Amino acid sequence: MVHAAGAPVFYDHAYLDAYEQSPLTEIDAFAYLAVKRGEQTVAVAPVYLQTAADPLGLLYKAYPEASGQPALLSHTWHCYDAHVPSTIGVDVVPTVINAMLRTATLFRAQWCGFVNVRRGSELGQELRANGLPARHLIDRWAADLTGVTDYDHYLARLGERARANLRRNERRSGEAGVTTEVLPVSAAALDEITPLCDRTAIRFDNGGFYPEGTFAKFVAALGDRAHVIEVRQRGRLVAVGVCLTDATRFHTWTCGVDYAVEGNYSPYGVLFAESVRLAIKLGKPVLEGGRSNTVFKQRHGLSPHHLDAVLLRA
Fold first, then answer.
1. In what order do the strands lie in the sheet with 71-73?
2. Domain named BioF2-like acetyltransferase: which ranges (predicted)?
């Protein structure tokens, strides 16, 4: 169903199973909704009961009236692209909403609804068509790579200053002894990667978003859905990207960066360049850049997509 609907990797069985076995945030209950027409399943939707429903500090700013109350949400916060995978389109959304309300009552949650819905998407439009007002959470960033044949082609699409910055950073990192390597999760240094991602999350006030032990197990369970980019300076890990792929998208899902490096270069800039190269190499027409770091992403060829939340009292 997920593959037929073209839904992102966050709805793939491997991702959902990994999250249930190794949840990265506190999940009180898991539920999986299936919409049927006769004997045929025509839509699916995972939903998660979360007492700690706002690990990124976004939801309660949009919905202060829901602060501190359990909520049944359309996905976890590690997914930034909400969908209702369906083979018959978004006409199933009212049915899914009714099922969410019933499930929320069963779980004794005060709220239920959708988070990280891209404004203007089919789901976003259908929610609005059903009279459900959306409230803005944050923006996510993406680039259309259709027709981009190599990294130089990508650079040519950027402004002169951004293009010069990336080329200068590549030269300086090379002079500083920096190397990069793309690895399957089975060969990646997950014991080094986890604390680096966690320290980076703390810089953005998101401490605990990549819990030690659980994070490594989760990433390992993703198998070939994940690619790890390691950036090292004379053997020391200075940046890492855990990237996910689906049929059409390359997701720079999460990263860790150590800015205390020798030499006048940005480890994040190196990681970004390698992510673009890998997305092009894998033939993915969309580069998903995730949330936050607005200035860098806007300057280097990514465009914003507004992400909304739609909550209902259960």
1. 29-37, 40-50, 71-73, 111-118, 303-313, 135-144, 286-291, 249-257, 236-245, 226-233, 178-184
2. 161-298
Give the C-alpha separation, 302 to 314, whole Å: 37
Residue 230 pairs in a beta bridge with: 181, 240
Give me the torsion for CA of 209, 225, 14, 120, rounded to 10°: 70
Q: What is the 3-state secondary structure (H, E, C) of 241-254?
A: EEEEECCCEEEEEE
Locate 228 and state its tokens. 């790890």
How many CA atoms does the CB half-sphere of 25 hold within 13 Å? 19
Q: Give me 282's structure tokens.
A: 């894998």
Cβ atoms < 10 Å from Cβ of 156: 10
Note whether 59 and 88 are within 8 A (CB). no
Other Cβ atoms less than 10 A from the Cβ of 250: the count is 28
Pairing of strands 236-245, 29-37: unpaired
Report field, pTM of the whole predicted structure over 0.70: yes
CA distance 114 to 72: 9
What number of other Cβ atoms are within 10 A of residue 102's Cβ? 13
Whether residue 214 contacts residue 229, with contact meaning beta carbons closer than 8 Å, is answered with no
Token pair 């609907």: residue: 5
As a 3-state breakdown, the chain gives helix, strand, coil percent values, each rounded to 5, of 40, 30, 30
Report CA 286 to chain centroid distance, whole Å.
13
Ordered by where they begin, the domains of the chain are 2-140+306-313 (3.40.630.30), 147-284 (3.40.630.30)
- 254 token code pair: 């999460």
237 pLDDT exceeds 90? yes
Write the pLDDT tens digit of every residue in 10-45.
Answer: 999 999 999 999 999 999 999 999 999 999 999 999
Distance between CA atoms of residues 34 and 85, nearest Å: 10
- Using 50, 70 and 90 to split pLDDT, how confident is the model at 205? confident
